Amino acid sequence: MVNYIEAATAPSKNTGAIRLYGPDAFAGMRRACQLTARCLDELAAIVGPGVPTDVIDRFVFEFGMDHGAYPATLNYRGYMKSSCTSINHVVCHGIPNDKPLRDGDIVNIDVTYVLDGWHGDSSRMYPVGEIKRSAERLLEVTYESLMRGIAAVRPGARTGAIGEAIQAYAEAERCSVVRDFCGHGVGSLFHDSPNILHYGRASEGPELREGMIFTIEPMINLGRPHVKVLGDGWTAVTRDRSLSAQYEHTVGVTATGCEIFTLSPGGLDRPGLPPQG
Question: Which residues make up the binding site for a divalent metal cation 1 (predicted)?
């Protein structure tokens, strides 16, 4: 039994009920998410061969501080960085360090800012220098998977419609969908109900209702979908060491479909790739 609750009256913890937000919350989320999107835009000019991911992480922290926001990941369950930087076969939750990026790498940068109590969560893939066509194709497939999942969002549909759209496309392109991680409710909490699976059937999952806010963040592998978490307790990698990619948007369900809160103000939602035709 799925329970829905007006967000204004909900307790400040994840109870399993799905929060329904009103216009003021949507306005707050627009501000937080656009700050995150602006940071990700700025990073397009910073990412490159020889740049350590710690430099990226320091920029994320300072950009947030300069704009009155705090990185949600910093000190979250013991995590000590302001972003996640996941390179090549790292699926998600890669920890920034002093190792430089190399020409041909692909890196996902995941940023969440807390601004006035609202969480703006988004991630993008960045090519580092010249990348192989197989890597470029993976980025293209992953981004298209995200956008197809978003296109399935509308009141009355079920969360499974998002997963079905993503899975059907990615697998038709001979890629695999990671099942160990998923999207999630977000808003006044960093991680909330419901879970948004990136695979499944359109008839499954909770019904989408106006006012819901959540992330869609498919992780797509060139190889098999299986992952493992390293000894640091955070870094998830592909078991077969195949390349992995992820794009993430935060969306809110509207009366007619959805609003993407984290769209790039500079048109850099897929930095380093040719504009979509």
Answer: 110, 121, 248
